[in-house]
């Protein structure tokens, strides 16, 4: 059992060598501090990158037609492809994995109300577009495009907050009519956009946009979500089947990846996730390396302590001290240094990360809007905090390493015979 006399002896030894004890402990504290701080920075980077995908479904796929790059069945390359209506309607029938789906026709025009005007984009979409892109509405701000709007080719429009502010000032836009080009549209909703961006589009029914801007057929791109497709292999197999079905309808080589542009958020999220895991692994390696440097310092100091106290150890053995008591004394000194300074380093690291997080919260850098436009308010750093369990586990591992740091010098001490130890200068 470790008694108070042993503690007093260890404390007396540490007081005699204050600078050496401080520098040894500082290396340990600095190691755990750097590990916690680096992990906090890594978590902040991961949180920041993933925050940029907050309003994007992680199972979303977007497609758009491009040019062929390979000849196919007598047809030349560099043919421009266009999506047809059947591409939208056949998507769910041929691919049961498809869940939500919307085609888009984009058009730029001037919106006018009385003497006010606003030049911006107008997208013709299906109702599922709101769910795919997390478009939200506050109470009393109307609605999005619905199935009846599509079926009846209604001239209704959903404005962005910035459009509503410019065109209507302090008036309520709902139910009013705005001129888009030469066509009058009734305002049925104003969606939420925290950033009040000038580039946020207005939305009209897809069927109306197709009739007005695309000669009644075709569209520019498809966006949809998939279900039951989770692994990389499943995503790759689904993309191949999708390209094959499009190739059959548009007559191009199924292996021609230039013919159809495709962006799969699952692949993008997986890529970013792997990148973040790699960064965190690198941080762990650097942090543990710094920590091990501190532990090595403790072990070296224990060797120096044993060498300095060799004569004292010989006298202890001569008067009947057991090897276990000498072993225990040196190991406990190592544990005391690593535990005390390791705790200081852990608290300092947690305090730093929590302090930075608190300042970021006060400044609004950590605020998360309910929804905002994809691509707006990009951030690379949010909530740089460390899980308390990880910090405590690291400190416990540090203390265990401290046991081994003291054990090997202590074992060397107990192997010295009493006569040889007493002869030491």
Task: Summarize this structure briefly.
The radius of gyration is 34 Å and the shape is elongated. The protein contains 13 helices and nine strands. It has 425 residues and is α+β, with helices and mostly antiparallel strands.
Descriptors:
13 helices; alpha+beta; 425 residues; 9-stranded mixed beta sheet
- Give the overall average pLDDT: 82
Uncertain residue ranges: 369-376
* N to C succession of SSEs: HHEHEEHHEHEEEHEHEHHHHH
Query: Rough shape?
Result: elongated
Structural class: alpha+beta
Radius of gyration: 34 Å
End-to-end CA span: 31 Å
Q: If helices are DSSP runs of H or I spanning 4 or more residues, what is the number of helices?
A: 13
For the sheet with most strands, the description reads: 9 strands, mixed
Share of residues in strands = 5-15%
Helix-residue proportion: 40-55%
Number of strands: 9
Structure characterization notes:
The chain has helices at 4-16, 18-51, 85-94, 128-132, 147-152, 161-168, 206-213, 232-250, 265-308, 310-318, 323-363, 388-415, 418-423, and strands at 60-65, 98-113, 116-125, 156-159, 177-180, 183-190, 202-205, 221-226, 260-264. The protein is an alpha+beta fold. Strands 1, 2, 3, 4, 5, 6, 7, 8 and 9 form a 9-stranded mixed beta sheet that branches. Helix 2 (18-51) packs across helix 11. The protein is elongated.
